[in-house]
Amino acid sequence: MSVLVLVAPGSEEIETVAIVDTLVRARIEVLLASCCPAGLRQIRASRGVQLVADCHIDELSSRDFEAIVVPGGLPGSEAIRDTPLAIDLLREQAALGRWRAAICAAPVVVLQHHHLLGDASVTCHPAFQVRLPVGQLSTARVVRDDAHRLITSQGPGTAIEFALEIVRVLRGDEAAHAVAGPMVMP
């Protein structure tokens, strides 16, 4: 099994690259799938950086993932929100009790929009926190809700911590520490 990372035109590039890079350092197989409405693999991220996905989401040969990760950024989160296959995969992941993770705008724009948060404790970019129910909102940089198999985080500055939490739930504390050390993480 591997981890599916969704990306679309306007996705946040620091988050996308930090997630993919950190997971690869942990020797986790990562599949970066484009949700580009035009069916393209190459996308222009939120700050204009060009990213090339491994495949388009319509080309996926498997639906069996240890985790599905949604980077933030606008309009990238909106494009993922509006990609029916992406939402089907996230719903299926939740139904199977497998990990899902979203950062920045994505917890609200993608997951909350499609009623995929349940009553999980979550965080998101501070600009979107007012859209979360007070009882669910955490202002922590990274929030892991084991009961819902959900990890959320606030934004580009928390992306490596977020990715390390994904490593931690998939491969354990030792693997997360082994990756964090050479990255000079606190």
Describe this structure as you would to a colleague.
The chain has 186 residues and is of the alpha/beta class. Helix content is 32%, strand content 20%. The protein has 6 helices and 9 strands; from the N terminus they run E-H-E-E-E-E-E-H-H-E-H-E-E-H-H. The strands form 2 sheets. The protein has a 7-stranded mixed beta sheet with strand order 5-2-1-6-7-9-8, with helices on both faces. A two-stranded antiparallel ribbon has the order 3-4. Helix 1 packs parallel to helix 5 (159-171) and helix 5 runs antiparallel to helix 6 (173-180). The longest helix is centred in the first third of the chain and has 13 residues, at 13-25. It is globular.
Radius of gyration over all CA atoms, rounded: 15 Å
Instruction: Name the helicity range.
Output: 25-40%
Biggest sheet character:
7 strands, mixed
Taking strands numbered 1, 2, ... along the chain, how are they ordered across the largest sheet?
A: 5-2-1-6-7-9-8
Question: Total strand count, please?
Answer: 9
The number of helical runs is 6
Q: Strand portion, in percent? A: 15-25%
